[in-house]
Amino acid sequence: MTNYSIAFDPFLPWPVIWFALAFAVLLSGIILVLRTRGGVLRALAFLALAVALANPVISQEDRTALPTSVAIIVDQSQSQRLDGRTDTTEQTVERLTANFERYDQFDVRVIETARAENADAQTQTRLFEALRSVFRDVPPSRIGGAVFVTDGQVHDVPNINEALGFDAPVHALITGRPDEYDRKMQLVEAPRFAIVGDPVQVSYRVEHQGDVPAGNESVEVSIYRNGELLAVEQALANETFEAEIELDRSGKNIIEFATDEIDGELTGNNNRAVVRIEGIRENLRVLLVSGEPHSGERTWRNLLKSDASVDLVHFTILRPPEKQDGTPINELSLIAFPTRELFVERIEDFDLIVFDRYQNRNVLPVLYYDYIAEYVRNGGALLIAAGGEYAGDSSVARTPLFSALPAVPTGQVQMAGYYPRISDDGKRHPVTRDLPGGASEPPNWGRWFRTVDVQDVEGTTIMQAANQKPLLVLDEYEEGRVGLMLSDHGWLWARGFEGGGPHVNLYRRLAHWLMKEPDLEAEALRAEPDGQTLKVTRQTMADAADPVTIIAPDGQEIILELQKTDEGLFEGSYETGQIGLFEISDATQSTLSHIGPIDAPEFRDMISTTGILEPYLNEARGDTRRLLNDNGDISVPNILPIRSNVETAGRDWIGFKMTQETELRGINRQGVFAGFLGLALLLLAFSAMWYREGK
């Protein structure tokens, strides 16, 4: 492209030139008025001389038209993976790119959205944010427009009066079918926190979107708590219902509502909705019953009293009924031991019962021991902190409580110094696995000096005395749990004997394991999100861990191998590009984990639509149309360069505004009166004047 223009580069200041031009005009006027011979030629000569002083210059510019920048914004959100939309998108982008390549003046930029590594960035479809980003380095005058390839579910559509920052059309090509319908489970209201054991209300709603076939109005809703089926309820579509749920553990609880799919619906991915509720325990209620006083009597009491989450009821049997020593009645305790209230009427109120060197001396009726065994059988927790009395005739092992105990005393008590050691099973058990000082040999803590011999050991021995004899045995008795500590010398650690030991860690973990603290389970499968990574941890007492199966939100199954990271611990991680609920399971354990926000906008509505983008794009002089025609074939419009925004789309085309911007490649300047050409013109003018005068 070549442009010509004329400019002036005067030899003298402009006032002088204007004066000379005025003088030439005046003189020429006088000559013409007097009708002197050669007056016209003289006038032309004077004017030529004045113009020559202004030095007119002809400029020749060599310019190249700049390309017009256009953008193809491709929606790669999770809803675009449904019902063949991925293939439609890929084919559309390929054809659009080919159509643009027919025109050299287009600079085409293709950008994909929802490809971020952060899960939160994938919970919304933000096409306009991508549109502003792709043109950040382009002047508005060079922007020819943009086209969205999307299902229409866009979450950052600007206000109808908000400008985009450039004057060019923006079009939208919509994937998906116009006759889609879908069923969606939605949580209306749910608490973030709840007290364990207290019922909470969760409101839910089953929504039907699109033209759902008749006969699907009644819906069966299954409610799960941490993967366990709690209830099946009947609900009606598009109405809100309430469910009453009771948490069974502290910490993270995932409550899931699920319903069956409708034949032909868009997707079943949103037929489930989950809420994460943090379970908060009210203060744990512990009953501590101490036998006759001993050196370590207050160890358990001090530990439990120091725990702000524990409500402790403590009784010490100072005087058994058979002891008659003539002490006056007014010097005895005024508080009678409420045996019936504690062990019959209110036994279920306690989370843990601790017998600290307690022996059967007729304080409790024999029948009450059966009540205690029944309490454990139904889910309670019992700890026996045994001393020498456990081996005698008054041992609680010789009562109906025997059925709940994990070991039977032989009647022998060993008195010799030894280091309590963590057993092989104990190295894998969460109660003792990483006790400070336990990894060295001998252990880096003080010795104990008494052990009660037992036989017929059931359950798991996690600590051992001398000669690998059981020291701490844990067992599960039907729904409940039992711990048996076969020495009363833990107080030596509390007193700092020979450097002491981790009695606080040990006792606290032991108590919380008995009360079923999830983090202390010996067999557990856990999964936690870390950005777009799902981290899986398997706690087990076995030598190896089986691979786990991960079911992604889109139904894909992934087998994940776990690697040993510590005794009893196996871990693995899975990188994913999806957000939603993941199911993780192996042969015996299962768990759930959710990546990204639970109520993500991306999953609220998944039916393709033109209604969200069309109002705004009409104002932006763009076109919104579906890609699939009535036959289900993909119909991609042609590309047409346009010069204005008067008409930007037609029946089978969409237009993009061409820029008028050019780039200067070179310039050539030539003075009219410069050099021999200028001299020749002046000589010609004056020669003609003299020639005429000579006639």
From TrEMBL:
Source organism phylogeny: Bacteria, Pseudomonadati, Pseudomonadota, Alphaproteobacteria, Hyphomicrobiales
PANTHER family reported in the protein's UniProt record: BLL2462 PROTEIN (PTHR37947:SF1)
Organism: Ahrensia marina
Protein name per Swiss-Prot or TrEMBL: Membrane protein
UniProt entry keywords in alphabetical sequence: Membrane, Transmembrane, Transmembrane helix
Sequence intervals crossing the membrane: 12-33, 40-58, 672-691
InterPro entries associated with the record: Class_I_gatase-like, Ig-like_fold
UniProt keyword Membrane, yes or no: yes
Origin: domain of life: Bacteria
